[in-house]
Write a structure and sequence with these properties.
With 442 residues, the protein is of the alpha/beta class. The protein contains eleven helices and 17 strands. A hairpin with a 2-residue loop joins strand 14 and strand 15. Helix 2 packs parallel to helix 7 and helix 9 runs antiparallel to helix 10. It starts with 25 loop residues before the first strand and ends in an 18-residue tail after the last strand.
Amino acid sequence: MSLEDIVTVAITAQTTTPSRLGFGTPLIARYHTAISSLVRAYKNLTAITDDGFPAADPAVLMATKIFSQNPKPASLKIGKRTSAFTQTIDLTPINATEGYVYAGSVVVGATTTAISYTVPAAATVASVVTALTALFDAVSGISATDNTTKLTVATDVAGDLVDYVGWSEFPDDMSFKDVTADPGIAADLTAIETVDPTGWYALFLDSNSEAEILATAAWVEARKKIFLTNTSDTDVVDNVSTTDVMSDLQSFAYSRTSIMYSQVRLLNWSGAAWGGKQLPTDPGSSTWAYKTLAGVQVDGKLTGGQASVIESKGGNHYTVIAGVNVTRYGVMASGEYIDIVRGIDWLDQRIKERIFGVLINNAKIPFTDLGVDVMRNEIIAQLQQAIAVGLLAAEPAPVVTAPKVADISAADKASRCLPDVFFQGTLAGAIHKIEIAGVLSV
């Protein structure tokens, strides 16, 4: 006789868990022909170049920004934009004063070309445009058109991106605007989402014109994702302008798009670097303000007045304070803080996953006061975790209420729906400024 003849034991492992939405994985949306896959994950730069992306390709350069941060994401994804854009830039000279020097550089692939033009005597804006058009048109890979009051520079190959360095630093002398048309970014993002709907959270674009940014912002707003973007358009620092990309994002009150001004160069991709720095942190645990970004050039010529204009339009910038390069202020276009939006997304999703996990790991949760308490306690547990990561304040303590079964309608009981569960908590927030008053006496 064996023990099994006396005692029979059957153990069921209740370890099934729903798939968890990640809040630390970025996706780069890039037009390319390297691979056919609409989405592919990468853990390092070597894996990207091994797939056929050239070392100077924007996908590699953006990934470098992301992986250069400390901490950094464990992996990132590249989503395939299948609609090719043609990068188009408007440059509008303003200063025709004799002796003024227009200077900057253009980076096409791995080749950097310096351009410099000194305004001669008796010059006009039209003559300056003509001279600059000839200099830009001589650069291989781009073509410039003289439009009398401005020159328009476009890439010769669709999907190519050219970097403009130094052309946005003096907006009172030269207006710079990315006027690239939107080739259909929303459709491309929908195709990417269809293949991989939940495996990524933060979105970055290779090309960030006003048209592409606005189309992407509208697409993201309907989803639990965030979009971090950049602009070098000089009209955003003009306090009179109300039709620039920052003003437009703000007017739509987009709460899932954050935009950063990049004064020093067009392809700075500080938004990607910013995401690379912050996405590895627990949602709600870290403010996005006052962060130093590895591999990102700071806007050293940004004036206090220009910075104030950017902030008034719901934008962000990368500046120097007391000798330290830092981001300011970590907000979405609506004015809501990025850490709050991400933290609420995380809390919402984790509560859903926790409740669903209870439902699938139990034969049933009875529709009794005891069963209601099971659900209530799961919510309390998740709120306690939100306190632990710094999203919610411990005092006052979060409260979760649920109705007594006797007070629930027969219709809800018949449909097995538990209604009127409510929780309340206080966001921990963050300190970004401090006001100090003191008195000294003898």
